[in-house]
Amino acid sequence: MFASRPALRWVVPAGVLAATFAIGLGGSLLNADAAGSLPPRTAGQLLVDVQEAAVDGFSGTVVQRADLGIPALPSIQGGGPMGGGDTELQSLVSGSHTLRVWYGGPTKTRIALLGTLGESDIINNGRDVWTWSSRENAATHIRLPASPDKAKDKQDLPTDLPKTPQEAAERTLAALDPTTKVTTSGTGRVAGRDVYELILTPRDTSSLVGQIRLALDGENKIPLRVQVFPKSSGEPAFEVAFTQVSFVQPGEEQFTFKPPAGVKVTEETAPSDTGKREHATPEKPEKQGPPDGMRVIGKGWTSVLVAKTGSTPSASGGDGPEDALGGYLTSLPRASGSWGSGYLLKGKLFTALLTDDGRLVAGLVTPERLYAVAAQK
């Protein structure tokens, strides 16, 4: 369904839209310990530190908590090798989760989502990408193209939410512009290590995001915790943080996946854009920006995404994944105005509007801002 209606993939994990604009994560799950003994650094110095941070490898345990303030999402079972339940990576949009992560370089990564009934893994080792679900007893293998350029095109994960503090911070820092106030609150401790704390605050008060906090490792300067707080309260909406971390290079065995006996393995082919690259020239560069059918209105924290979904939600009463999604969407509150009518999904950090004429309008803003944008047909 998401392949045929790309815009709808933003609706289910609606908070993902917020993440793509600016944010990382938030929460009070791991409050900093007593202040550490690091020498003082300014906010500007810390910004440079985190952007230049580089480590050869690390591993650790990450705890993530999401409280986006949206209705409970439907449990969509049988969704492929990532399965369902608390070991499904798509479940990261709500509740608390524990992950194990290993990093051995840009082409050697592994993420394991641990659950009460098993685990789900994504392993990238050079050109090989594996996904594995112990709960579904199934795995998928993808061989990436040999071209260095194409090798950078990683297989999409089942969710767009950041899996580690580093990934969350990179998304946040990429969105920094004059609309953001950057300060520091001093030092503290996270996962038993001294950290600097960097604070990002939107200057535009009409955004639903109140503050983003990054805890940077005092030695390596990579984020050990990233938090996002909504403007509406002092309670966090999303957080990802290390509870234990080691900066020792992980062994090769962590990135070598051998399917256990009895596991069903599906071989897939990585998407190819050979034709596009062959026809791309300096005079006619490849198109940049949002995909076809999508546009961004405004800038910074109050940007709004407008996308054509190609259809309107409906509930058929069936029990398939599309039926579950349709039932979820049609259970949302109705909204109407000069722009038309549709379904409204409002969270602590974002708002999304799915109109009856097949448009998705969403951003880190209030419903009123979305209505104004929706009226600009």
UniProtKB/TrEMBL annotation:
MucB/RseB N-terminal domain location: 146-249
A Pfam family hit: MucB_RseB
Keyword annotations of the record: Lipoprotein
Region (Disordered): 141-164, 259-295
Coiled coil regions in record: none
Signal peptide coordinates: none
UniProt key word Lipoprotein: yes
Source superkingdom: Bacteria
Presence of the UniProt keyword Lipoprotein in the record: yes
InterPro entries, per the entry: LolA/LolB/LppX, MucB/RseB_N, Sporulation_related
Biased composition (Basic and acidic residues): 274-289
PANTHER family: SPORULATION PROTEIN YDCC (PTHR37507)
The protein's name: Outer membrane lipoprotein carrier protein LolA
Lineage: Bacteria, Bacillati, Actinomycetota, Actinomycetes, Propionibacteriales
